[in-house]
Amino acid sequence: MNLMAMQLDTTTAPVSTDMERVERQYITLFESPSVLELEGGGRLGPITVAFETFGKLSPRKDNAIFICHALTGDSHVAGRYTPEDRKPGWWNDFVGPGKAIDTNRYFVICANVLGGCQGTTGPSSIDPATGVPYGPDFPFITIRDIVNVHVALLDALGVHKVLAVVGGSLGGMQVLDWAINHPDRIGAAVLLASGPRLSAQGIAFNAVGRRAIYADPLFRDGRYYSEAEKPHFGLALARMIAHITYLSEASIEQKFGRRLQNGTDLAYDAHSEVEFQVESYLHYQGRAFVERFDANSYLAMTRVMDYFDLTRRKDSLTTVLSKATCRFLVVSYTSDWLFPTSQSVEIVRALIDARKHVTFVELPSPFGHDAFLIKSELPRLEQLVSPFLARGYQDGIGQSG
Amino acid sequence: MCAKRLCLPDPRAAITNDLIINQIEPGSRVLDLGCGDAALLERLRNEHRCDVLGIEKDKESVVQALERGVPILEADLNQGLSFLPEQSFDYAVLSQTLQQIGKPLELLHELFRYARRTLVVVPNFGHWRIRLQVSLQGRAPVTDNLPYEWFESPNVHFLSMVDFRELAKRGNFHIVKEIPIIGERAVDRAALANLRAHSALYVLERAERSL
C-alpha cells in the first residue's frame, strides 16, 4: 500500500530541488556458517537485504531512525534515484531535509522486508541450494523474523541503538516487535494505524485475497517464475479487495461518488466492468500493483500480518509490553476501519498499565487506514512526530545504550 | 477575551501548582486531567520523581507536552476514561477542570476506579467580589482567573466551596483536606473562606462504604 498516497493524488508532482538523491544498497547477511533461525522453525541464509539511507550518521552513531514500511512497501521511503524519476519515495512528504523526519538531523534507514520482492530475499529470490527461485518452498516467516533481519542490518551498519523506530500498519507491528524483543536497540517507538494483532476481519480480507491468487490458473502452485505469464489476474484481484480496506466509505464517496467513467448516461450493459469511476480506479490499482509485486510474496506477507498477535501466548498484553523500555507515540485515525482506534487504545491501556511512557492521539481524517500516507494528513502527524523525536534526540537517548 | 470586571490571581500560576505538588508524595503515579501545557506534570516528574500522565483535549497543549517530554493522551473528559487501566494511579489531579465537565459527579466517581486520591482545585464563585458583581451589576461573573464572557466560557458550572462540600457528601467522597486559596496564599484554615477564597483545593478519598 506504499504507493497509494501518490496514486490517490492524481496530480504529478514536479521534481523539486529539495529531493535527496538516493541509492538502493544491498548487503548480504546470515552467510554461512551464520543462519537466521526462523520463528516458525525453519532456517534461512544467506539473506540479501535491500536498504536505503538518508542523511548522515553522526560520529557517535546516535542519530539513527529506522522506518518500517507497510505490507507492500519497500526501502524507497523518500527521495529519487535519478532526477528524472516521476515519483519520489512513498513517504517523501514526511521524510527529508527539513521535513517531519528531518534528514538534516537524523540518519534514516529503511529496508525492504524479508519475504518481500523489492530486493530483500523473498520467494522470488534464487535459492542458492537449487539455483531456481524459492517459490512455494520459501520458508514461513513472521514479524519477528523480519525484525531480526533488520536488527542484523543495524549491526552491519555499526549502529547499536536507534533513536526511534517508526512504522504504520504492518510497519507498526514491526515497531512493536522492536520495542518488545530488542528493547536495548530502540529509544522511542512511533506506532501509526496499527494494533496488537490483526483482527478477524483483517484475516478475512486477506483470505479472500489469497484465494484470488490460488484460483488463478497461472499461479501453478507458486511455480510460475519460468513461465511467460504470471498470475497477474489473481494478484490484481487481491489488491483490489485489499485496497478497499485501506480507504473509507467517506473517502471513496468524496473521490468518486457515483460518477460514471464515460459520459453521464448509464450503459445498461451487465458486461461492462468499468462503468463507474470507482471501478476504473480499482482496476487501475490492480494493474499497477502487479507490475511491482510478486504473488508468492503477497501470500507470505499477508500471512505475516495474519500471524501477528502479541497475546497469542498466555501472557497478557501488559506483561508482553512490560519488556519494552522505550517511549511510545501511538496515533490512530478516526476513519480507519482496518485498524480502528480501539486497537491502538488497547495498546495504550496496556502500556500505561505496564508503567510505560506513552502519548496517544486519535487524528481526525476521512482517509481511512491509509491516512498516514496521504499528503494532506501529514502536517497534523508532523506536529506530533517531530517534537516526539526531537525530545529523544535532545535527551541523548541514543547514547545511553 | 472580555474586559475584566474583577482581578483575581491566575489560579494556574505557580502558587496552585506548588500547592498541588505539596499534597503529592514523591515517587507517586499522577494523572492530570485537563493538564494544559503539562507544566505541573513536568515539575512533578523533575522535582518529585513522579511517574506522570496527562489528559488534554486541546491539540496545541498536546504538542507542548510532547516538547516537554511529558506523556499525554488526547481525549475529551466528557467522553469517559475507559481507555485507562483501572487502579493505576496514586493521584488524579483536576486543577481548574471540574467546572468545565458536563457531569462532574460522574467523573469524580469514575476517577476513583483509576486513582486512590483525587486532588481538585475549583474556583469559588462564593467569593465576595463575585457576589457583589452579580448582585450590584446584575452581570454574569467574569474574573481574572476565569476571564470569559458567559457565551465563550469553557466553564459550564459555577460552584462555591459550600456547593463543593455538598457534592462531596452526595458522592460519598471523604474530604481529607480543604485548602482555600486567598489572594496569593493557600491557607489551611480560614474564617469565612467561602467569602474570601477565589479558589480552593480539595483532597478527596472515597469514603468507607456506609452500611
Query: How would you describe the oligomerization state of the chains in this entry?
Result: heterodimer
Protein chains sharing the most extensive interface: A-B, 23 and 19 residues
Helix tally of chain B equals 7
Question: Largest beta sheet of chain A, briefly?
Answer: 8 strands, mixed
Whole-Å distance between the termini of chain A? 34 Å
Mind explaining what this structure looks like?
The complex is a heterodimer of chains A (401) and B (211). Chain A has a single domain (4-200, 312-400), classed as Rossmann fold, CATH 3.40.50. Chain A has 12 helices and 12 strands. Chain A has helices at 4-8, 143-157, 170-181, 200-214, 232-246, 249-255, 277-292, 295-307, 317-321, 341-353, 378-394, 397-400; strands at 25-29, 36-37, 43-44, 47-54, 64-68, 95-96, 101-102, 107-111, 164-168, 188-192, 327-333, 358-363. Chain A has an 8-stranded mixed beta sheet with strand order 1-4-8-5-9-10-11-12, with helices on both faces. Chain B has 211 residues and is of the alpha/beta class. Chain B has a single domain (14-126, 158-206), classed as Rossmann fold (3-Layer(aba) Sandwich), CATH 3.40.50. The N and C termini of chain B lie far apart (50 Å). The chains are: A alpha/beta (401), B alpha/beta (211). The A-B interface holds A 318, 327, 329, 345, 348-350, 352-353, 355, 357-362, 383-384, 387-388, 390-391, 395 and B 29, 51, 53, 59, 62-63, 65-69, 71-74, 83-85, 88.
